Amino acid sequence: MLLDTPISLSRPARMLLAALSVAVVSGCATNYPSGTSQQPAQYVLTNDTAKPLEDEALNRFLSQAPASGIHSMARSPWGDNVEIIADSTYLAASGRQCRQLRVVAAGGNAQAALVCETPNGWVSQRLVTQAVEGRY
Fold first, then answer.
1. Could you tell me if 111 and 101 are in contact, meaning their C-beta atoms sit under 8 angstroms apart?
2. How far apart are CA 133 and CA 127, in angstroms?
3. Of 9, 37, 41, 92, which is the most buried if we count CB atoms within 10 A?
4. How far is it, in rounded angstroms, from Cα 50 to Cα 125?
5. Is residue 5 over pLDDT 50?
6. What is the rounded CA–CA span in Å between residue 115 and residue 110?
7. Sorting pLDDT into bands at 50, 70 and 90, what band is 4?
8. Distance between CA 7 and CA 14 in Å, rounded?
9. pTM for the model
């Protein structure tokens, strides 16, 4: 059933409706920064005990290597005489660039590792799937 008579609003109701309309339109017209112009996420973790990797060649490799890049090391944080195979970088929830690594020992045994970039260089991180010593 359609109403043939128009709905009449009191003056205060019309003013309230006008104010709400302006608020909705101004909210839609607000210029929010796009994803490309935002500042990169800042990494802040006060209880991070990870020490930067000290090997300059390893840091350079982690910063520049393409996905599936291989780096051989006589001594590494993951053992001696290993090949490190790097996955592509990804942006972690911490806001840092991270890479998963596959570390292959001379005998063929492989282990997974994770490194993340900090302002002081790359650091080795514990994989989420690894248990913390003393806990289970």
1. no
2. 13
3. 92
4. 7
5. yes
6. 16
7. low
8. 11
9. 0.60
Tell the residue number behind the tokens 């913390």, with chain if given.
Answer: 132
Contact 82, 101 (CB under 8 A): no
Indicate the DSSP class of residue 52. Answer: B
Rounded-to-integer distance, Cα 55 and Cα 74, Å: 11
Closest CA to 78 of 125, 128, 136: 125
Residue 46, both tokens: 């006060």
pLDDT digits (tens, 9 = 90+) for 60-74: 999 999 999 999 999
| C-beta separation of 134 from 115 below 8 A | no
CA triple 36-98-41, angle to 5 deg: 35
What are the φ and ψ backbone dihedral angles of 3, each rounded to 5 degrees? -90, 130
Q: List phi, psi (to 5°) of 80.
A: -95, 155
